[in-house]
Amino acid sequence: MPAAALPVVRLGVIGAGNYATSMLLPHLRDRADVRLIEVATATGLSATNAQRKFGFERCSTDHRGLLADEAVDAVVIATRHHAHAAMVCEALHAGKAVFVEKPLAVDPEQLQAILAAVTDSGNDRLMVGFNRRFAPLLVALKGAFGARSGPVQVRYDVNAGRLEAGSWYANPEEGSRLVGEGCHFVDTISWWLDQDPAGVFAAATGDPDDTASTLLYPDGSVATIAYQTTGDPRAPKELLQVTGDGQVARLHNFQRTELWRGGRRHVHRSRTGIDKGQKQELDAFVRAVAEARPMPIPLASLVATTLATFAARRSLGSRRLEAVADDGFAGPEPAPAADEGAAE
User: Torsion angle, CA of 17/179/214/264, rounded to 10 degrees?
Assistant: First the structure.
């Protein structure tokens, strides 16, 4: 759908929980090119608190009123996981540019509904909060690694830790940790490789949330995501390693990177602590809306990442390699068969 350039992006926000108020809204509050129109939450108290803290012009408990407001150009959706898809569909139909926190959807039916909304509305202005691909240290490390001449091996260790007792994250309707957080790591790897996964094999390793997922990529690259909930909670959360082309690149919990090449080690450290790219992803989204440019992450990549998490979940049950596209989604129509005797 054609979009017009905007001098100031008029923004509405749905949801103001801990993540939104600590990792998203602080990066939007003082931008000269953003006008915070309305925040809508499930309770009036949280809406009022968010309005006062971040300077929204108004607050409410009715997200549909926010979406119906023509004074709102774009929305940020930061609700619980199971609610993302329905709100994305509503926002797309309302003609808004949409930033939704991960995951995009928690099951194939939700994802299909979003794709139908894109088609029906003609609005594909959609971005998911896959912030790690925007993290400054990781962006610099990928740049230093350079263009690949062949396949590589990737290992992503995630020391996720156990959920607190009673956490909403453990509710089955929210999907699963594999879908709800695993999408982050699939996206990061696919961004590094500049391609989407074709197949996934996943296995649980004791605790149901402890999983190892192996992703196969079209160029022969192989990536393993080890998602662990039973380790020492004080250990670093994320360690990423990419090996190939005579190089080894390592990211240590978004605090430092190492690049081994030609027998030498090149080290870079963050000067601002752990930075996972939330500020940079929001900047990319706002600029894309303001300048009427394509969304920072292609829709096809968002869909492929989401499908990969569904394939991983299927693989846990089937105990076999699962194709990423095998979720009931129609692919391109096959070319018509040539008539017998026709020239090849």
Answer: -10
- 54 and 106 both lie in a single domain: yes
Q: What is the pLDDT of residues 100-129, one digit of tens each?
A: 999 999 999 999 999 999 999 999 999 999
- DSSP per residue, 7-34: SSEEEEEE--SHHIIIIIGGGTTT-TTE
Looking at the DSSP bridge assignments, the partners of residue 216 are 199, 222
Between CA 257 and CA 342 the distance in angstroms is 58
Whole-model pTM?
0.92
As given in the structure block, the two tokens for residue 147 are 């263009």
Same domain, 74 and 159: no
Integer angstrom CA distances of residue 313 from 62, 145, 146, 170, 324: 34, 32, 33, 15, 11
Task: Note whether 122 and 145 are same-domain residues.
Answer: no
Q: How many helices (H) and strands (E) does the chain have?
A: 10, 15
Rounded (5°) CA angle 148-151-154? 100
